[in-house]
Write a structure and sequence with these properties.
The protein contains 18 helices and 30 strands. By secondary structure, the protein is of the alpha+beta class. Strand 17 and strand 18 (about 485-500) form a beta hairpin.
């Protein structure tokens, strides 16, 4: 009786578990199974609507695990990629190459119609099932598939390739672009929507033009820089999503056909004719063009302020403190006049007010007129003593104060202050390695130190922003970052104190031309700019000059040149490197390597690849050893990439200058039009 009850309980428990499992499976698979009852309504369009593209994302790997929150649906791939013979739903499917000993023979193999490399099977670890090719989709429409930890839109096709497994992402082109544009042009580094839109259209056009490039391997394009960098959903960004959406279906055409929309990172100020880089016949829309804004886009600011008796940084510092109401307008006029204790106290109090700081008490007797005393007073007045003690160890202070006159620092406060001000970049030793703590300061020297503090602490009234334009209404600037950037217009005071900062060299000017996108620091009173410093670059006006690869240098020994050339030719000991032919941009399109055994001429891309150069826009110089032999060939160049088509950093520069995406594309691609296609 007891055994009977126990058995009955076991049977009931088993039935309950079965029912729960059945309900769970039915609930979990209700959507796809109900859809499978009507196969004519189901196709790959559910997850990857046309126009779509096939991207090889994982090639010949040992193992691929594919997961979706609601599980995955599997069905053998057919020519139409429709649902046929759909398989059960499971949370994850792990694919590995099938064991040749147990692999089943496919219909394609039996009929002799299987394509090369496609007849072998992949096996699912969880079930042991084997497939020739299998499509994997999420059980619920709208969900994302995750392969080996990385999320992707669309569906996957898994097949055997070589000794491993290949995963192809089948995805709509518009969703594909969402995973391309942020990796080809970072929206955080280049947050100009018009530049990102130009990149989106170029990437879409490139994909359409080159679709089927890897057809023999079962997909259209690769996911690397050899095609376009694509990493699925992980890097999608609202700004690049917007760029894709606002240019939906737009492509670049020449004579009615989508172009091969090549693009390069940094073109060094000028792009190149395609045939000089890739060889072959000229391509009418891939012609070299300057990468810069037109001269007409330069903006001009003028000032009626009288010339300052000071020069350079002294004039800038005095003007800054005057407009911040820290010092009177004539404070820096007499350089030889020593600063007084009363002036230091008054100016320091007004500086604290300009900085929005309460300040701390400091002993006036510590000031005197010595530099060391002023530094100690300012450290205490600014409440920086704790900063000096906590942020700088004794070893840090000893390291920084390796100056010849450190013994002239008369107190612990002076030593602390001198080390702190050096640490913060407010004091720099002279060429004689002195900081002159005993120097009697004049007014201009004191103003210099106070102005450095104002810039370091960033007085609220000292605004840093991006220049956009100058109009009758005033100066248009943009402040903030990303989508939160705000544009404002400030009137220009007729007596504006105007300065040009050329890579740190400060010059007072009465007239200055600038390009949109340059950085300005200014002080405004009642929304009227009275002090303006515009930061400019010695690199000139090229739209891609902001790239860290705009200028570069590489030094190679003759032996390194010979090693780089060896896969193609052996010229013996290298005697010289001679550019023989230049393209329209000045790029080297033919480079002769002269050796003891003869010479070999490189063309186009092979020049970069042979020697690991960032670009072929370079000049060659030679460094000699004491015996007069060439020790190094010095390649001084500009740019990064092949230099053909759209310049990505240049597009950002042109967009910063106010160019719209269609104008950017028509600038870099000659004689083209934009069309919306399906």
């Amino acid at each position: 009786m007891i055994r009977s009850v126990r058995n009955r309980r076991i049977i009931l428990a088993s039935l309950a578990a079965f029912c729960l499992a059945f309900v769970e499976v039915r609930c979990r698979t209700a959507h796809p199974r109900s859809a499978l009852d009507r196969p004519e309504r189901m196709s790959i369009d559910t997850w990857a609507p046309d126009p779509r593209i096939r991207i090889g994302i994982l090639l010949n790997i040992a193992r691929a695990g594919i997961y979706a929150p609601s599980g995955v649906v599997l069905w053998p791939a057919s020519g139409t990629a429709a649902f046929e013979d759909s398989r059960r739903v499971r949370i994850q499917a792990t694919f590995v190459p099938a064991d040749p000993q147990t692999a089943e023979t496919t219909d394609a193999e039996r009929s002799g119609e299987g394509r090369a490399g496609f007849g072998r099977l992949v096996s699912i670890v969880e079930t042991g099932e084997q497939y020739d090719r299998v499509v994997v989709a999420p059980a619920e429409a709208g969900e994302t598939l995750i392969v080996n930890g990385a999320p992707y839109r669309g569906v996957f096709e898994v097949r055997r390739e070589g000794g491993g497994v290949t995963v192809v992402n089948v995805v709509s082109i518009e969703d594909y672009l969402r995973g391309v544009v942020p990796y080809e042009m970072s929206p955080t580094v280049y947050p100009e929507i018009e530049a990102l839109k130009a990149q989106a259209v170029a990437a879409r056009t490139y994909a359409i033009h080159n679709k089927g490039q890897y057809e023999s391997r079962g997909y259209d394009l690769c996911a690397t820089a050899a095609c376009q960098v694509y990493r699925g959903q992980a890097g999608e960004h609202p700004l690049t999503d917007r760029a894709v959406a606002e240019t939906r279906h737009v492509v670049i055409v020449h004579k009615g056909k989508p172009i091969n929309a090549l693009f390069t990172s940094t073109c060094g100020g000028h792009t190149e004719d395609a045939e000089n880089v890739f060889g072959g016949r000229p391509v009418p829309y891939l012609r070299g063009v300057p990468c810069r804004a037109e001269h007409a886009s330069w903006r001009v600011i003028r000032s009626l302020a009288p010339d300052s008796p000071l020069s350079g940084e002294e004039a800038r510092d005095a003007a800054l403190l005057e407009t911040l109401d820290v010092v009177p307008s004539d404070a820096g006029a007499v350089r030889t006049r020593a600063v007084t204790v009363e002036e230091v106290e008054s100016w320091s109090a007004r500086l604290l007010r300009a900085l929005g700081r309460d300040g701390c008490d400091a002993r006036t007797s510590a000031v005197g007129v010595r530099r060391g005393g002023l530094l100690a007073y300012l450290m205490n007045r600014l409440c920086w003593r704790e900063r000096a003690v906590r942020m700088l160890s004794e070893a840090d202070r000893d390291y920084l104060l390796q100056v010849r006159d450190r013994d002239h620092l008369r107190s612990e406060d002076e030593r602390l202050a001198a080390a702190l001000f050096m640490h913060e970049g407010l004091v720099t030793p002279s060429a004689e390695n002195r900081i002159r703590p005993d120097q009697i300061l004049d007014r201009a020297q004191t103003i210099r130190i106070l102005a450095r503090v104002a810039r370091k602490v960033r007085a609220p009234a000292l605004v840093e922003a991006e220049l956009r334009d100058v109009t009758r209404e005033g100066l248009l600037v943009r402040d903030g970052e990303g989508e939160s950037r705000v544009e404002s217009v400030y009137r220009l005071d007729p007596g504006l104190r105007l300065f040009r900062s050329l890579d740190g060299a400060v010059i007072p000017v009465s007239e200055l031309s600038f390009l949109p996108g340059e950085t300005a620091r200014f002080v405004a009173r009642e929304h009227r700019i009275v002090f303006l410093e515009i930061e400019q670059s010695r690199l000139g006006v090229s739209a891609d000059r902001s790239s860290r690869y705009y200028r570069w240098e590489k030094r190679l020994t003759p032996r390194e040149i010979a090693e780089g050339l060896k896969p193609q030719a052996d010229v013996g000991d290298v005697l010289d490197v001679q550019p023989r032919r230049l393209g329209i941009s000045g790029r080297v399109s033919e480079l002769a390597i002269v050796g003891e055994k003869g010479e070999h001429v490189l063309h186009g891309l092979s020049i970069r690849w042979a020697f690991g150069l960032r670009e072929s826009l370079f000049v060659v110089e030679r460094e000699r050893d004491p015996d007069g032999r060439t020790a190094f060939f010095v390649f001084s160049g500009k740019g990064w990439g092949h230099g053909v088509g759209l310049c990505q950093v240049g597009a950002f520069g042109l967009a910063t200058n106010g160019a719209a995406y269609d104008a950017i594309l028509k600038h870099y691609y000659s004689g083209v039009e934009l069309e919306a296609t399906r």
